[in-house]
Design goal:
This is DgyrCDS168. The protein is mainly alpha-helical. The chain contains 6 helices and 4 strands; from the N terminus they run αβαβααβαβα.
């Protein structure tokens, strides 16, 4: 996964981590130690907190059942909003690629017209590159894969 994220950080892609975890600081510290050659602050990070996501009219956190039904969609919506506000870029649903270890989250993402890829323990960059070739995505600069 580190190899994949490193390649993405070298490209023009926006890299975002969306998680149900509430451990923002731990994840940020891990990124800082894992990506010493890159500006890890380029990675947008959206974690759950006691204040986000919020339920109806801001009355407390979103019920767990809603998160289970929506998968990572609220997180992805937040990311799309952030990219628009900070870069003025409009991201279309089909321009999003969710990498997730949960098949259910990937299925829900596809229902929202996003691309998704299930990450397993044995994933490697070549396997992902083969998948990416099927997408109509322009990676600039191109990602090279050595066998």
């Amino acid at each position: 996964m580190k190899e994949l994220l490193s390649a993405a950080l070298e490209s023009s892609l926006h890299v975002c981590i969306v998680t149900f975890s509430e451990q923002f600081k731990l994840i940020e510290d891990l990124m800082a130690s894992a990506f010493t050659k890159y500006n890890y602050k380029k990675i947008l990070l959206r974690c759950n907190t006691k204040h986000w996501p919020r339920g109806e009219e801001g009355h407390g956190p979103l019920p767990q059942i809603a998160m289970m039904t929506l998968g990572k969609e609220q997180h992805l919506s937040w990311v799309v909003t952030q990219l628009y506000q900070t870069h003025g870029e409009l991201i279309k649903p089909q321009e999003i690629l969710l990498l997730d270890d949960d098949e259910r989250n990937c299925r829900i993402a596809r229902e929202f017209n996003h691309n998704s890829f299930v990450v397993t323990d044995s994933i490697n960059l070549k396997e992902f590159a083969d998948y990416a070739k099927q997408l109509d995505v322009d990676l600039a600069p191109p990602v090279t894969v050595s066998s």
